[in-house]
Design a protein that fits this description.
The protein is about 35% helix and about 15% strand. It is an alpha/beta fold. It has a single domain, classed as Aldolase class I (TIM Barrel, Alpha-Beta Barrel). The strands form two sheets. The protein has an eight-stranded mixed beta sheet, with helices on both faces. The chain is globular, with a radius of gyration of 18 Å. The structure holds S-adenosylmethionine (SAM) and iron/sulfur cluster (2 copies). The site of S-adenosylmethionine (SAM) has 15 residues, from β3 and β6.
Length: about 290
Amino acid sequence: MRGGGREKIKAMLFPYYKLVCKLLWDFNNKLYLYHVELPVTLRCSLRCKKCVFMMPYFEKPVDYDVNDLLLYMDRLFDCVDAIQIFRILGGEPFLYPELGKIVDKALSSDKVKTVEVITNGTILPKNELLEKMKDPKLTVQISDYGRYSTHKTELKQACDETGVRCILRDEKEKNWFDSGGLEFRGRSAKELKKQMRHCGNICRNFLDGRLYYCPRAAFGAKLGIPDPEREYVDFTSEKTREQLRNELYDLNRRKSLSACNYCNEGTKLYVPIPVAEQMESKQRLT
Ligand SMILES: C[S@@+](CC[C@H](N)C(=O)[O-])C[C@H]1O[C@@H](n2cnc3c(N)ncnc32)[C@H](O)[C@@H]1O
Ligand code: SF4
Ligand code: SF4
């Protein structure tokens, strides 16, 4: 689907998603998350100027500690009743040396219905990792950034030969948008609510043991925008399962976030842009 079509459908379906989650919670005490993204590293092999995760703007990109990630995954999976899509990504996930352990953990949970590994097609993983990813529940999704995705063809072929489900997502399907810089927009509470309704984001981002409402809030906080405690669920501290479940439910029901005041999504300023345009040298986020 092209341009703003997918965005409009996302916003249209958003109230129904919220309603289903509410009904499941109210009548069955079931906690359902549709889409959770786990960044395993901030390192990347590309420097996309308008990366939605703002990867090129991290001066010292790190890999997350694998034992920490495995522990946080256990805690999250224990709390929820189901996660429809669990996405493993980065930065570039195939740069992460311990990716196999993360894949194993995600695949071994009954609560996780499907697993996706999202890559920019610049790296060919080892056979051992390809073998691990050979599971009907998992799909490798290659973002096709044209000439920048230097190993996309070999990667697709290696997946096909090993029996790993793999999709090459064409540049035309990618639909990139500009969320703008990280400056404060000065919007009113009413405007922020309207913005969030139009944004319709259902991709929760599990960054460094904290489940954030969206990637903009997660990575924005790392890059210096306000990071209020009530706007993420913290799996790094000791909390009871019940407490974490209630916090997750509340996060899912939020009507606005402070991060929206540092973001253009859900507004007229959220415009289509070329896919994966590379940054030549160090630049600020504008
Ligand atoms: C941040 S990337 C991380 C995984 C991997 N490095 C890649 O590029 O596929 C995750 C997803 O976000 C998409 N993405 C990145 N910047 C975007 C933007 N400005 N608008 C829309 N999607 C974007 C990518 O195409 C990819 O599907
Ligand atoms: S969108 Fe580009 S910069 Fe961002 S993580 Fe993917 S490849 Fe790296
Ligand atoms: S910060 Fe707000 S408007 Fe931006 S993506 Fe997140 S929820 Fe949507």
